[in-house]
Amino acid sequence: MAQDYYEALGVKRSAVVEDIRKAYRRLARKHHPDLNPGDKSAEERFKKVQEAYDVLNDAKKRQMYDQFGFYSENASQQAGRPSSPGMDFGGFDFTDVFSGAGRRETPESGFSSNFKDLFSQFFGGSRADAAAERGADLDYALSVDFWRSIRGAQVRINVNRQDTCGGCRGSGGGGGHQTVCPQCNGAGSVTQATGALRFNLGCPRCGGTGRLRNACPTCHGDGVMPRPETVEARIPAGVQSGDRLRVPGKGNAGARSGPAGDLYITVRIDPHPVFRREGDDVHIELPVTIWEAALGAKIEVPTIDGRALLKIPQGTQSGQKLRLREKGVFNARKDKRGDQIVEVVLQAPRAQDERTREILRELGRLHTEDPRAALWSQTEP
């Protein structure tokens, strides 16, 4: 079993180069044969310290040691066994790695427990994964009217997606005569070089079989065909503009019988002539007469639930905002409703007859204050 180089130097696995060098100098002085004449154990400890330092002080050697749990210059320095077929990694025998024998497995090292983990760590998938491919996701922009966004709805949309070919059931093959794969020459694997390491991988063209079937005449070997489809989707109550809804498995079908992608629906809410939504609150502008605002009143206002009674306080001004509690949109995530915000817009009467004009002139004589006085005091130098 290979020694633990970090333990030999008494440093952590996160130690920087300077810490490693300091530890080596301290231990080398302590166990140097010249300082311990005749002490065989000190000599052995010095050799282990020297070996650990040679590996951990070299960035490339340390990287390999951290990755695989050991470092070796060539296969002959391993367990004395020749490399197994398909295990030749630039002169390193990884037989023990793949069989699970004679390796250290610690949380710190993150060492892979089997060949599939190691393969995935380098190339992101196994040989089987190289054949099948997940289909692409699709995006769809959907306009929803105001009331559907408030109450929710079931909608049907038409999408153009890649579906599994019915002729070959997604395999891409047309059956009949098979030919030798030209990429791997029938071996079913190809060699991938990564620096000094060489890996035998499943051939991506034939999926590791070494043979190619005739292409499907329907899909020409793609395994998928374009097809329009009507998809049903649920628009949840309270959805907001810009929300994305996911419909699983309704994206493009995967190549070579791979899983389908998903369909993402981006919601755009159409404006309403009266109600305006801001988050979970609903806003409206409410026309109010001068006498209702001056004297106060109780008037009916529209809400998304129907009519509601609103109290107009005495002396209400134009632009003032009043609130109707819990008359907004229900938010399922918060389990509560928003409010309705009512903005008062004063409506002046039309003086179409002499009686009305006389009453308005009388009001002017009773209220002589200048409502614009504050403006002049703040704007004039």
Structure notes:
- This protein has 381 residues and is α+β, with helices and mostly antiparallel strands.
- Among the domains are: 5-125, Helix Hairpins, CATH 1.10.287.110; 276-366, Urease metallochaperone UreE, N-terminal domain (HSP40/DNAj peptide-binding domain), CATH 2.60.260.
- The protein contains eleven helices and 17 strands.
- The protein has helices at residues 5-9, 17-31, 40-56, 59-68, 95-99, 115-123, 127-131, 146-151, 290-295, 354-366, 373-379; strands at 138-144, 153-164, 173-180, 189-194, 197-202, 211-215, 224-235, 244-247, 263-269, 276-278, 281-289, 297-303, 306-312, 321-324, 330-331, 336-337, 340-347.
- The strands form seven sheets. The chain has a four-stranded mixed sheet. Strands 1-9-8 form a three-stranded mixed sheet. The protein has a two-stranded antiparallel sheet with strand order 2-7.
- Helix 2 (17-31) packs antiparallel against helix 3 (40-56).
- The radius of gyration is 39 Å and the shape is elongated.
Please describe the topology of this protein:
Blueprint: H1 5-9, H2 17-31, H3 40-56, H4 59-68, H5 95-99, H6 115-123, H7 127-131, E1 138-144, H8 146-151, E2 153-164, E3 173-180, E4 189-194, E5 197-202, E6 211-215, E7 224-235, E8 244-247, E9 263-269, E10 276-278, E11 281-289, H9 290-295, E12 297-303, E13 306-312, E14 321-324, E15 330-331, E16 336-337, E17 340-347, H10 354-366, H11 373-379
Parallel strand pairs: 1-9, 11-17
Antiparallel strand pairs: 2-7, 3-6, 4-5, 8-9, 10-11, 12-13, 14-17, 15-16
